[in-house]
Each structure stands twice: as structure tokens, then as C-alpha cells.
Amino acid sequence: MPDARRRRTKATVKPQVENQQENSSSAPPASHSLLMRYVALIMVSMIGLVLWLLFIQRSGGDSGFGSFKLGALRGAKAPARDDMHKSPFFVADIPGKGMGLLASRKIKQGELLVREMPLFVVPRETTSSPSELVGGLVAQLSKKEQEAFFNLSYVNFPNHLDPDRDRNEVALAIFQTNAVGAGDNVGIFPRMARLNHGCSSAFNAVYSWREKERALYVYALRSINQGEELLTSYGNARQPRRERRARLAEHYGFECQCRVCSMAEEESQASDRRLEAINGAYERFASWGQGHISGTDAIAQVRKIWRLEDEEGYWSERGSLAADATLVAASHSDVLATQQWAELAAEWYAYELGGDSEQVAAMRAVAADGTRHARWKSRGGLVVGGP
Ligand SMILES: [Zn+2]
User: Fold this and answer.
1) Can you give the pTM of this predicted structure?
2) 198 Cα to the center of ligand 1, angstroms
3) Ligand 1 centroid to residue 4 C-alpha, Å
4) How many whole angstroms from 308 Cα to the centroid of ligand 1?
5) How many DSSP H helices and E strands does the chain contain?
6) Is 295 in contact with 288 (CB distance < 8 Å)?
7) What is the distance in A from the centroid of ligand 1 to the CA of 314?
8) Where are the transmembrane segments (predicted)?
9) How remote is the CA of residue 252 from the centroid of ligand 1, in Å?
């Protein structure tokens, strides 16, 4: 069982996938290409699940939701033990934070950090008690896997329960604290769960789920120096400091002390202003979907977001942003811009999702021939401009 310090540390969840989801939902509705739907689906399932499980726990452990297929629950077992000697990181005790991951050598931007199968997954809907459900799945794990599971941190454990006696409730608390979206399910990934959180420009690792492989991938968003901590983002990394710290404290039980949250007041305000301007530009960009702004203006918003993110040092979600710009350019049948944005999207998708991801392949195909884009020529012809 985690000690109190670990509990405060909390580990895991939301990030990258969620960021991408937010990103795609703020993108033009017309961008509901297969690609964007795919990303949205990941996100929706993740949030829905976690919220739902929280809800049923608070309402006494019973739920009247849908049917429940216990037999299909058990996910693939943990992957063949990776060769840890090759690992670019190691687990360490981080002062003030509990456990975390430190780079064991210099890590390149776009380098694969973790490929992990879930210890187990839980479906979206169940009529069972969530604590019995999770407790039952944990009971089916090997001793070693159970050890890995119970070593994870947790928060929000009901005061009236005894963690030494109510083991299913502990299992549920661990699940709720550490679960990550895995397609239509949510799963537990003990290695990935060791990633601590960083806000805005502070996080350097992002994760995504590949449905075909039923595996979670974590990539280095930027180059990472030896000894530097690997950090990902738990949720919306573009909120102003006050809001994101309040959310992290409520959901994960820690006061964020990341580099961005620790900035001096003036510097922090400048960061908040940039983040708000980025969010505003995303909103305006999204209004292209309803035809409220021109394609030229939409592309101007993307360029603005890119510039502000350079200033902020925030690099996440650039693959999907450039893919959305590709969609705008293709819709207006701007051949050159379509090619350029698609190349940029492929480059940044490769950093975040892997060079062999479906998203990269899709963008490379569009870069080679813009007319293959699903939205090609769906709006009036216009030179919208490239990156
Ligand atoms: Zn922070």
C-alpha cells in the first residue's frame, strides 16, 4: 500500500490524449475527419469512464448503468518484461513528490519511451459495484502484477473506510487515480503511471492509445537531458495557473510545484496571458467550421497559436493543429498550403504519436496528393497560405 507521501504524489492519467481531444473539439466542426474522430473517441471514452466511476463511487457503489461483460474485461497482460537495461529512464524517489521517472541518458525528441499493455481494463458501463469489479480483476492478476498495482498511489479514499480491511475500495481508489483511456475502456498501466505531472511548457512526455495494438505509447515531446524528470500532463495544460492548480489539487490531491507553477508572479502572469490568447485563437479558429471566419483568417489563427506556443514553450497538440490547418487548406483547394501543412502535421504527429502511427501515414498521404483529403474542394477556392 502506498505511504502517505506517495498518496500525495498521485500519479498518472488524462494528459496527452485529453489535450488532443480538447484540441480537436475546438477545431472546425468540418474537421470531423476519421482522424479527428479517432482522437475524439479516445478522449471522450477516457473522461466518460473516469467521471462515471467517480460518480458511482460517490453514489454508494451501485449503478444502474448498462450491461456489464465481465468475461471481456481482462486486458492483455503486462508486456514481456522490457529490457530495463535499455530503458531511457529509471524509477526514482523524487524529493517532495514520491516516486517518479528520471532520464538515464539524453533522450531525443520523438523517442519512444514506453510501450505498455494494460494490466487490466474496465468497460464503460457496468451494473456491478465498481469496487467489486475492480477488486475482482485485481484478484485475477499474478502476485507480481498485484504488487505493481498496489504500489501505485491513490487519493480521495473515503474517511470512514479502513485501507487495511477494505482492499476492494483501495483497489478502486488506485484505479480511479491511475486509470488511462484505452479505446472504449479505461486501463491500468503501472509503468506509465509513474509519470508525474507538469503544466504547460513543463511536461516533456505525451501518451496515446493505439486501438489496433491495444497498447499505450509514450513519446518524448522534446529532447530531455540526462537526470531530468519525465513529466506528462494530467488534463488541460492550457488553463491559467490558478485554475489548473485548483483542478489538480481537487482531482489528484497535490499542489502543483512544476516549473511553470513556480514562476515569479510577473512571469506567471505573462504565461497566463499567452495561454489565454492561445485558447482565444483556438476558439476563433473553430468558428471557421460554421463559416464565421474566412479560410485565410483561420490559417492566420493557426499561425498565431504556433507563435504564441513558441513563446510559451508549449509544443503539445501541434500534430492535430497542423492537421486541422491541412483540412482548411484542402477544403479551399489550396494545393501548396495543403501539402505544407500536411508535412508539418506528419512531423509533429511523429513526435507525439510515433512515426509509424496512423496519423502520420494519413498526413503523408495527403502531403503527397492533397486531393486525397476527405474535405478536398468542399469550400470555395482560396489561397489560404501555408505555415
Ligand atoms: Zn504546474
Assistant:
1) 0.78
2) 5
3) 21
4) 19
5) 12, 10
6) yes
7) 13
8) 34-55
9) 12
Superfamily in which the 4-252 domain is placed by CATH: SET domain (2.170.270.10)
- Ligand 1 centroid to 263 CA: how many Å? 10
Tell me the pLDDT of the chain (387 aa) as tens digits. Answer: 233 333 333 333 232 333 333 333 333 434 444 444 444 444 444 444 444 444 333 222 222 222 222 222 333 333 344 444 568 999 999 988 889 999 999 999 999 999 999 999 998 777 788 899 999 999 999 999 999 999 998 888 888 888 888 999 999 999 988 998 898 899 999 999 999 999 999 999 999 999 999 999 999 999 999 999 999 998 888 999 999 999 999 888 889 999 999 999 999 999 999 999 999 999 999 999 999 999 999 999 999 999 999 999 999 999 999 999 999 999 999 999 999 999 999 999 999 999 999 999 999 999 999 999 999 999 999 999 999
CA 303 to ligand 1 centroid distance, Å: 26
Sequence-separated (6 or more) residues with CB below 8 Å from residue 328: 28, 288, 295, 298, 299, 302, 384
Residue ranges of the domains in the chain?
4-252, 265-372
Cα separation, 63 vs 76, in Å, equals: 26
